[in-house]
């Protein structure tokens, strides 16, 4: 499929995390709603309250909506704003990860468990210990599961250095190294971190870390990992420049070397995606705001085939809105 397709038309959906479980494709998106919250750089207008999950047997087949899998009122530590989620599977159990502000308005990452990929999921009593900021992205290799996470501005990553909250949180100056997404190996039970989160360093063509002022290339949010032909592809959103970009490395921790853009700006402010192989082809899942007439907080998930060049670089997609 060379033309992008919307996932569903009856709900606003965003931030798609695509996972293949038991031969079926599952999409775990955010569920956008109209709340009347004012639009601001903090993202208060993204005031989502629950999640649905969708499945497909074939990429161009019927899309099944499995209904609400987790509601904000069912999370014991909840404050507000359920943002971009992710999922994982291990030993017949399914794990759903979600960023949510706690009762002090601090973003944490929560975990919830189910016996089925389509839920419903039961949230743990506490957020993952040591978690902060937003946008978990899950990657599994040889039985080890890694979480990538982080997001600046409304995602609060600028309030931390070395995994600790700092007094006055701001982005570094333009000439300083950019803030990095984080990567952490999960514990055996997939409910806690097994180690301190580490920086996902993105290097430029000269081997230097990207600078904070390099808004066309530096990480902003939507940290995702996939593997293609023995290489590790870290992909992400540049936020205020509205691009999806990627960098390639030799292991899940990096460092990663910046390689280019995956997707040019679409209708809407945010750009958030996942990349998934299904039945021998690769797909980019993303969202735009075209169906809502450009309302940034009412987005719709789309997907399109993703192709690679011979040298392993991704063929950039343009005009996908
Ligand atoms: O959906 C809320 C936030 O918008 C996500 O967490 C970000 O990645 C951006 O898409």
TrEMBL record:
<dbReference type="InterPro" id="IPR023296">
    <property type="entry name" value="Glyco_hydro_beta-prop_sf"/>
</dbReference>
<keyword id="KW-0326">Glycosidase</keyword>
<keyword id="KW-0624">Polysaccharide degradation</keyword>
<keyword id="KW-0858">Xylan degradation</keyword>
<feature type="site" description="Important for catalytic activity, responsible for pKa modulation of the active site Glu and correct orientation of both the proton donor and substrate">
    <location>
        <position position="135"/>
    </location>
</feature>
<dbReference type="GO" id="GO:0045493">
    <property type="term" value="P:xylan catabolic process"/>
</dbReference>
<dbReference type="GO" id="GO:0004553">
    <property type="term" value="F:hydrolase activity, hydrolyzing O-glycosyl compounds"/>
</dbReference>
<keyword id="KW-0119">Carbohydrate metabolism</keyword>
<dbReference type="Pfam" id="PF04616">
    <property type="entry name" value="Glyco_hydro_43"/>
</dbReference>
<dbReference type="InterPro" id="IPR006710">
    <property type="entry name" value="Glyco_hydro_43"/>
</dbReference>
<comment type="similarity">
    <text>Belongs to the glycosyl hydrolase 43 family.</text>
</comment>
<dbReference type="InterPro" id="IPR052176">
    <property type="entry name" value="Glycosyl_Hydrlase_43_Enz"/>
</dbReference>
<protein>
    <submittedName>
        <fullName>Alpha-N-arabinofuranosidase</fullName>
    </submittedName>
</protein>
<keyword id="KW-0378">Hydrolase</keyword>
